[in-house]
UniProtKB/TrEMBL annotation:
Transmembrane segments: none annotated. SUPFAM superfamilies: ARM repeat. Residues 72-509 form the Integrator complex subunit 7 N-terminal domain. Pfam families: INTS7_C_plants, INTS7_N. One of its GO terms (biological process) is snRNA 3'-end processing. This is Uncharacterized protein LOC109710517 isoform X1. Residues 1069-1239 form the Integrator complex subunit 7-like C-terminal domain. GO terms for cellular component: integrator complex. Signal peptide: none annotated.
């Protein structure tokens, strides 16, 4: 069935008819009010123009008469044409401005233009042209010019009119400059669309340019009009050749400069001409051309490289000339800056631009740019910094592509030379080492920031006030530090250099702050030496600052408010405070990034330790800020790492695991019980201090930090205290939910580490602040770590904890209908609670089996009865674990859907959810194979073949394989041994939710996975020789013990909440509106038995705004109905609103899986693919939409319900989108599906 996909927008009105009536009446009102209001209609015209033609199906949805939209738009155009004919020149100029905006849209689309002024959308275009031509025939000279320009805006309507063409050609011979200029403008617009007219205008324009009796302004206009000869490639080529001949002739420099710009615009439309144009521009830069021509040639190079730098290799001539421009001190600063900008465009896109550059040339360029970075000019220095980072990052990306490419695809020049050229050592090292060039780049940027800090010191000594310099200084710091973070994406070790340099900046700024504070002491008593950064006084300081929490619930970062005063040192304190906090935030961001890369752990923590000590000594008044608190949490690890990390500790944590087989094991693991206890105590101490000082906002941030790091005792304390500090019920629900969740997780920690937990509870109840430094010795560590408890004996307590975590979700549900608010939080809590329930169930099966076997072994009786009972217990155990394994596998998919259902999610949160998905998938695999002895002869005698045939572990193995992209060759090789046991085919597709193995916590999960793999392989190897049931029982016991060990280790790892959990805006989603195409009653969808259901569909994105940088390319939707989902009698209508409910998650996962299968099979044939979903009861249909700029999309589809008996049924749906980067995102449904009825008409 043919599908018609279009897009329409309602502009906030109820339906399309209201929209057009409103627009038409507004136009009439504007015309009555004349000039004052006519400009307001411009954006309305633009809105109407981006809408496509409305089909009959769309018209039926909104109660429109077919063609009604075209009637209203033509009415609007006719009224504007009337106003142009009757009004004065001022009104005509205003009306022309309305259509000039639409001309930009026509210039971009060319022959593909389909806006409001497209000829096929304006049936009465002849009448429009007639009314404007009246103005040209009867008006004065200015009126003629305005009419000609309006003809240009209406090029698609007028391009085939012989009368209008004649008018334009006649005007080109006029003696009035304004009329000729207007005619050239109109002719250029026509040449965008009409090939035959372009040939005529090209000849006329060349004659005008070459004519000696024509004024300079007309010649320039004629040259500019050539740039619009773009209707076909042949016209572009002919125009370019004609223009190039003129440039190489004896034209004046002014005209040559204008022609160079025109030729560059033409060349940018044809990749064939780009190289030729570059050579032409370089010729003007090589020879002794005037400054005007050199400047214009540089500008034109920038135009070409900004659009097409990736379309051809950069040759040595380009680099050499730009290099000379930067070096030439005789050239002006503007020349040098323009050359730097062009180089940024070259190196800012793709590694392939390096394919024809030699190492010496590149090394020379890098050294030259480093010299430019020392310039006294701020613009040149900033461009040089950015260019230096661009070159280094481009080089690293090229090296990575070269290393992973096949022999025939390897980049030919620079990357190959790195293996042999001694100069290459200046640009690149090994994978983890920092090359000297990156080191120098980081040092240059940080030294510049140090010099800025010294300027602050100098101005303070001179007793000068800061005015505009304040904002510029902070902006310079932010820009420069952002460059360091960008460089760290490819060179993580550069952050270590930056962190070391920050100490010098902090020492300098600390001296500034001391001088200002000493100068002002006694003048402004509100600022003490201990704490000069304070909040504005709160009139009710005992209450929680609701404004701050409001901003937090809207996911906005509140601005810190610093001390205000009436003395002249106030602005200096403000600037120093801002810079100090900026440096601390950068330090925290750097540490998070280094943790993600997983390199140089010991050196990282030593650098942080020294940095914190520097802050404590040089700027103690900033020591109690949240940013310093985060640094201190890293600092304490620096003081304990050398004592705690040892081979003995490694063996103590994962004794059964062969650590030597793990790749990268020399990097220390992050989670250690003793280190976790110290972090809890430090967080508690700082939180208590903030609560006592009523600094509730900082306390709230400490609670967020504790959630993200798994410090659940500190989080429980913070949110329990903050609940009493708020008055709003919605805020109270939010904080109560946080407290319940933190309380449940802290109880799990208490079960795992009772002695540590009891000590932390004592800290919770203590009134004092935890100031005692904690130095954990090896003996202390053994004592604390030895207090672990086997959690398998806490099955009942874990069940109660699950109920508490469920109550956290129920608390958020009390906020009522939310339209997407708290969906992420409630979904995340549901998945956590379900995971704990499954773990409790696994413990239950393991414990019950062990108990049953103990009872049987004590009994003495008939061996046949004993054997039968043992067999039954093993069947029950295997069946129960298989069920839990499949549930865990489903839970992993739920986490995948959670990660991909929020388009504005940050990368760190995305990776955190992927880690939880891997945890579920890994546990599902271990649960499935821990009791799988199918290769044993004894097992075949006990378990019937029919039972084994019904159980397939292929989905479990498939799911885990998709997540092991970076797990390492040894782990992958061990895992592939299990894949060889399977008879079903394994899809080798890798998921983008696979584990990021650089992160410290990811590696801990991999260590446990390797421990599990080795244990499972050992059991399977021993199972081959097992014959009798006694030996089989021994294997069962080993499998049980392995499961206990795996679960114990997984539960001990820190459970951390993603940062996105605290972003509580309404989620981005979609609404689907479904209408029956064949039903006479638009309020009901009815089809006769045995027929397919014809549906009109409209999908609308919601809550998008500017919250995400993702640009959507395609929308897909799946409709589903079940024969078994017949609605009860008397309930023929479905719910109108969709609310989040835990029971709907699995349904979304199932529909999303079918939709993904559709995308894999064929993303372009929505109505031709029959998706096999494995559920005979389920009827599905997949639809593709192409939304326009306004969001909505429409489609027509047939849902095959011919097998449905009479009755009413629910249509469920789910949607997803593909962004311009090719990434798949699920879209949450924000409204419910509809119901339809099958009955005889």
């Amino acid at each position: 069935m043919a599908r018609n996909t279009i897009a329409v927008s309602m502009s906030g009105l109820e339906n399309l008819a209201d929209f057009f009536h409103h627009l038409s009446s507004e136009c009439f009102k504007c015309l009555r009010q004349r000039i004052a209001a006519i400009e307001q209609i411009s954006h309305r015209i633009r809105e109407l123009s981006i809408e496509s033609n409305i089909t009959k199906a769309v018209s039926d949805m909104y109660g429109l008469v077919p063609g009604e939209d075209r009637l209203f738009s033509n009415t609007i155009l006719l009224r504007l044409a009337d106003a142009f004919r009757r009004g004065d020149n001022h009104m005509r100029r205003c009306i022309l401005k309305v259509f000039l905006g639409e001309l930009r849209h026509l210039s971009k689309k060319g022959k593909m233009y389909n806006g409001i002024l497209a000829k096929h959308r304006v049936p009465n275009y002849v009448e429009l042209l007639r009314r404007v031509k009246v103005v040209f025939d009867t008006g004065d000279q200015q009126a003629k010019s305005l009419a000609l320009r309006l003809f240009g805006c209406w090029a698609d309507l007028a391009k085939d009119s012989a009368q209008i063409r004649y008018v334009i050609l006649l005007s080109l011979q006029s003696s009035h400059v304004s009329e000729v200029m207007a005619a050239l403008f109109a002719a250029g617009c026509f040449c965008l669309l009409a090939e035959d007219f372009s040939c005529i205008i090209l000849e006329v324009s060349i004659n005008l340019i070459c004519s000696s009796g024509i004024s300079a302004i007309v010649k320039r206009a004629a040259i500019r009009s050539l740039s619009m000869m773009q209707c076909t490639l042949s016209i572009i080529s002919s125009t370019y050749k004609a223009g190039k001949r003129l440039v190489l002739s004896s034209m004046e420099d002014d005209f040559k400069a204008e022609m160079l710009l025109t030729l560059s615009k033409l060349a940018s439309k044809s990749t064939i001409l780009i190289a030729e144009q570059v050579d032409l521009l370089l010729s003007f830069l090589k020879h002794e051309s005037t400054a005007l021509l050199k400047a214009r040639a540089l500008k034109c190079l920038g135009i070409l490289f900004s659009r097409y730098a990736c379309h051809f290799p950069i040759n040595t001539d380009v680099l050499g000339i730009l290099h000379n421009v930067i070096e030439d001190s005789d050239l002006t600063l503007n020349f040098q800056c323009e050359a730097l900008r062009i180089l940024r465009q070259i190196f800012g896109v793709i590694p392939s631009s390096l394919s024809s550059i030699s190492v010496p040339d590149l090394s020379k360029l890098v050294l030259n740019v480093e010299g430019a970075a020392l310039s006294a000019s701020g613009v040149k220095r900033s461009l040089a910094f950015h260019l230096l980072v661009d070159i280094l990052c481009c080089l690293r990306r090229a090296m990575e592509e070269h290393s992973h490419a096949s022999p025939e695809e390897k980049l030919p020049s620079v990357c190959s030379q790195f293996q042999d050229d001694p100069e290459a050592i200046l640009l690149t090292y090994g994978e983890n080492e920092l090359p000297p060039s990156a080191n120098r780049a980081t040092t240059l940027i940080m030294d510049y920031l140090i010099s800025l800090a010294k300027q602050v010191m100098s101005k303070t000594n001179q007793n000068m006030l800061f005015t505009v310099f304040d904002g510029d200084l902070k902006q310079e710091y932010n820009t420069s530090l952002s460059l360091i973070l960008r460089l760290a994406e490819d060179y993580p070790s550069s952050l270590l250099v930056a962190l070391d340099k920050i100490r010098c900046i902090i020492q300098t700024l600390g001296n500034v702050d001391d001088n200002v504070n000493t100068e002002c002491i006694g003048t402004y008593s509100s600022i003490s030496k201990k704490d000069s950064v304070v909040k504005k006084p709160n009139p009710d300081n005992s209450n929680f600052p609701c404004d701050s929490l409001c901003k937090e619930l809207d996911a906005k970062k509140p601005n810190l408010v610093f001390a205000a005063g009436e003395y002249h040192g106030e602005s200096r304190i403000l600037v120093v405070s801002e810079l100090m906090l900026t440096l601390c935030k950068f330090s925290n961001a750097s540490l998070n990034k280094l943790n993600d890369f997983g390199q140089h752990y010991c050196y990282i923590y030593l650098v942080v330790k020294h940095l914190v000590e520097c802050i404590k000594e040089s700027a103690p008044r900033y020591y109690d800020t949240y940013e310093i608190f985060c640094l201190c949490m890293y600092s304490h690890l620096a003081s304990n790492r050398c004592k705690v990390i040892s081979e003995k500790e490694k063996d103590l944590r994962l004794a059964p695991c062969n650590l030597e087989a793990h790749e990268g094991v020399t990097k220390p693991r992050y989670f250690i019980p003793s280190a976790w206890a110290v972090q809890e105590r430090r967080a508690l101490g700082f939180a208590k201090k903030m609560i006592r000082e009523r600094n509730y906002w900082t306390a709230y941030r400490v609670g967020k930090y504790s959630f993200s790091k798994g410090l659940w005792f500190a989080a429980t304390f913070v949110f329990r205290k903050l609940i009493h500090a708020v008055k709003s019920s919605s805020f109270s629900c939010w904080l109560t939910s946080l407290m319940l969740l933190a309380g449940g997780e802290s109880e799990i920690k208490l079960l795992l580490f009772p002695k540590i937990g009891i000590e932390l509870i004592s800290e919770l109840q203590a009134e004092g602040i935890c100031e005692k430094e904690i130095n954990v010795t090896e003996i202390d560590m053994e004592y604390l770590s030895g207090t672990r408890v086997d959690i398998c004996y806490c099955e009942g307590k874990l069940g109660k904890i699950c109920n508490r975590i469920w109550s956290s979700e129920e608390t958020l549900a009390l906020t009522g209908p939310s339209d997407g608010l708290f969906y992420f939080q409630r979904w995340f809590i549901c998945l956590r609670a379900e995971f704990l329930e499954i773990v409790v169930g696994i413990f239950g099966f393991l414990s019950s089996h062990s108990f049953a076997m103990e009872v049987l072994n004590k009994e003495v009786g008939n061996e046949n009865i004993h054997f039968a009972a043992t067999t039954e217990n093993m069947k029950t155990l295997l069946l129960g674990l298989t069920n839990k394994s499949l549930r865990l596998n489903q839970l992993a998919k739920n986490y995948d859907l959670l990660a991909t259902s929020f388009l504005d999610i940050d990368h760190q949160s995305f990776r955190s959810i992927c880690r939880l998905a891997f945890n579920c998938s890994m546990l599902a695999f271990c649960t499935a194979f821990a009791m799988d002895f199918s290769i044993s002869h004894a097992d075949k005698n006990i378990m019937p073949c029919s039972f084994r045939d019904q159980v397939s572990y292929t989905p479990v193995v498939q799911d885990l394989f998709m997540r092991l992209g970076g797990a390492g060759s040894k782990i992958t090789a061990q895992f592939e041994q299990f894949m060889s046991f399977l008879t079903d085919k394994i899809d080798l597709f890798r998921s983008r939710t696979q584990l990021n193995c650089a992160n410290y916590l990811d590696r801990d999960y991999l260590l446990i996975f390797q421990f599990a793999l080795q244990g499972l392989l050992c059991i399977r190897r021993d199972a081959k020789g097992v014959i009798d049931k006694g030996e089989l029982q021994s294997l069962v016991n080993r499998g049980l013990q392995l499961m206990y060990d795996i679960l114990q280790k997984l539960m001990e790892l820190p459970f951390q909440l993603p940062r996105y959990y605290f972003r509580t805006r309404h989620c981005i989603g979609a609404e689907l509106f479904i209408f029956g195409a064949d039903s006479g009653n638009k309020d009901k969808i009815i089809t006769p038995p045995g027929f397919q259901l014809s549906l009109n569909l409209c999908i609308q994105l919601k809550n998008m705004l500017a919250r995400t940088s993702a640009q959507l390319a395609k929308l897909y939707c799946i409709l589903a109905a079940r024969v078994s989902s017949r609605l009860p009698l008397g309930k023929g209508e479905a719910e109108n609103t969709w609310e989040f409910r835990p029971r709907k998650i699995n349904e979304m996962v199932q529909l999303n899986a079918i939709l993904l299968q559709y995308l894999k099979e064929d993303a372009g044939k929505a109505n031709e693919i029959n998706i096999v979903n494995g559920d005979e009861d389920l009827v599905t249909a997949c639809v593709c939409f192409e939304p326009n700029e306004r969001g909505p999309g429409f489609s027509i589809y047939l849902l095959n319900v011919s097998a449905f008996p009479e009755g009413s049924y629910q249509i469920n749906w789910h949607s997803c989108c593909i962004d311009t980067n090719g990434s798949h995102w699920s879209l949450l449904p924000l409204n419910a599906g509809v119901s339809f009825s099958v009955k005889r008409l």
